[in-house]
Amino acid sequence: MRFLPDGRDLAVSVIGMGYVGSCLSATLAESGLNVTCVDTDDRLVAEMRGGGSRFRDPGLPEMFSQGVEAGRLGFTTDYGEVTACDVVIVSVGTPARDRGRLVDTQLRRCCEELGRHLRPGQLVIVKSTVPPGTVRRLVVPLLEGGGLVCGEDFGLAFCPERLSQGAALAELRSLPVIVGGWCEDSSAAAAEFWRRGLGSHVVGCSSLEAAELAKLANNWWVDHNIALANELAQVCSSFDVDVMEVIEAANSIPKGNGRVNVLLPGVGVGGSCLTKDPWMLWRAAGERGVELATISTARQVNDAMPGLTARLVLDGLEEAGKSARGAKIAVLGLAFKNNTGDLRETPTAPVVAQLVAAGADVSLYDPLVDRDEAQRIFGRPLSPTLEAAVDGADCLAVLAWHREFHQIDFPGLSDRVGRDCAIVDGRAYFPADVVASFRRAGFSYRGIGR
Length: 450
Hints:
The strands form 4 sheets. The chain has an 8-stranded mixed β-sheet with strand order 3-2-1-4-7-8-9-10, with helices on both faces. Strands 14-13-15-16-17 form a 5-stranded parallel β-sheet, sandwiched between helices. Strands 5-6 form a two-stranded antiparallel sheet. It has 16 helices and 17 strands. The protein is α/β, with parallel strands linked by helices.
């Protein structure tokens, strides 16, 4: 059966207005599709209906406003409105607990409700990250609970999201889309949808499980590579060698279909994917008798980095003859990575907690994060300005390097900070000439592996 209509504009519904669902909806609308956005949060739906977005990716708020004004974006809490759509995309949250155990509450409720409103001929695409086997074992029976048969009455494909916070809008138009269908007709319809909707290059998989595993393998690789970089940084420090120099040299050699690509060390790994997805795969493999040693090792290495970063700060104070108790430490950048305001699982939180436990007076500054969310996670308010955060500081800990920080004149802050102020580099990767300018201005400098 053909699950995608010919020759007319497609009507699409996206269920789940989190980060991925919001970015996807705005991009599809910008491409000329009519998009119905569904979420159970009344307040969120009201905000979006007014053209607002809770996510501050560059360009996203403007895309939402334009989509609403053009009549391409609609918002509702009523699942009944998906019946009129050609394609229904499931993008609800799939958190995990206890080392990869899926909390399927949102996914289960979504599929139960969606099953009641499906009609023959529709295509369902699941984008939410799940352990292998979940779509076949959980999603399909729930969707069929409404009386329709998967592969006969409606199509189904798993097309995992693979977006990076802060770059999602560009990646939605540039990254290949993985497609694994319930049947050949489902796969063909999903591939055609992504080509028609976003002009995407499609990578086909032979099964739902292959597509589910491909997503998890992506983040397994990233987490493992970062762990390698973090341990390499520690080795480099022990030899008084700059890890950035070593990585640049190591990455110069061709290997396989590309080059050696050691990633960069940092304060730690956070976000909703890298802290969850490898554990999902680890648990799924263990349930089938396969013990994956590298996942638990990489997680242990990366989870230890906030402690190492806090130690860098405290050692810098000690080297300057200052006690941690009562010292002022300005933390610049709170998000889990550069150029995003996302605070989910941010490794900066345990760094701050350890500094506070050592008796330090910690000020916080990040222009991208939500102030209320920061207060909840860090237990203290954000400084209103950079100047307020750094006044009298004994250490400037740069733990996320947003574009908004690139114009900071650190040497120019020397009159505001305390004597012998240290700069600790958690993710800025300042080049050698910039570090030299810090030192000429009277700062000391410490970086991870630097």
